[in-house]
Task: structure prediction
Amino acid sequence: MTPMIVALDVSKHFGPLKALDGVSLEVARGEVVCIIGPSGSGKSTFLRCLNQLERIDGGAIWVNGELIGYRREGDRLHPLSDREIARQRLASGMVFQRFNLFGHMTVLQNIIEGPVTVLRRPRAEAIADAMALLEQVGLSDKRDSYPAELSGGQQQRIAIARALAMKPELLLFDEPTSALDPELVGDVLAVMRDLAKGGMTMIVVTHELGFAREVANRVVFMDNGRVVEQGPPGTLLSTPTHARTREFIAAVL
Ligand code: ADP
Ligand code: MG
Result:
């Protein structure tokens, strides 16, 4: 079966800085991959490249078999138009550390905005879907609340529902619980655990090693813009091969 993600030798510079230095990674459909690593190691940049919030400057990425960002003509590659990139970006939903909900819209409006304006779905259908998603994240009673009236954990669960409303093929999470008070982390992780059980393909950048151990099929350790090592969580988190991985895990635990 075609992998959901194939990243091949991806590099990304910011001026002289090499944020990604030859990252290769495959993610199968339905797989949950956690990416761990120190601050500045390129984790966010990698997710942003997968979602085309950044353009890569070396290597290639395929999402569900489709080369992203470029169109091949003979042996030449041509950059895609903004419109084509916008279409490709719909394949992946992204959940950020800061929830980025629209503050002037209710919870329900936040969730149906994309489906109605981007996907042109009939409003009644979008609302019915949104209510099912609110049920799924345990916040049916908050449909008419504004983001400022919700806790950080509730806002993040709404952000997840909003991403799911676009029916993405995979979800990318960038430290989704890092901005939350500790007592609010569990509810967000529970929603993510349910999504994983439901077969959603997920790449999760996180420092929650307990979550990685329990939910991930694979854990990837990044440092200095590279994948240093990867493996099943039991192996990578308990008996890492590289000294850098050992140091990092010891520091996070
Ligand atoms: P992580 O998410 O692992 O903490 P990032 O991907 O955010 O790491 O950053 C990797 C490196 O790229 C860091 O050195 C960071 O400062 C740099 N970087 C990230 N985004 C930008 C940007 N837009 N402009 C310049 N440098 C950036
Ligand atoms: Mg980051």
Q: What stands out?
A: The pocket of magnesium ion (ligand 2) is lined by residues 43-44, 174 (CB under 6 Å). The chain has a mean pLDDT of 96. The CA atoms of residues 46 and 132 lie 31 Å apart. The chain is about 35% helix and 25% strand.
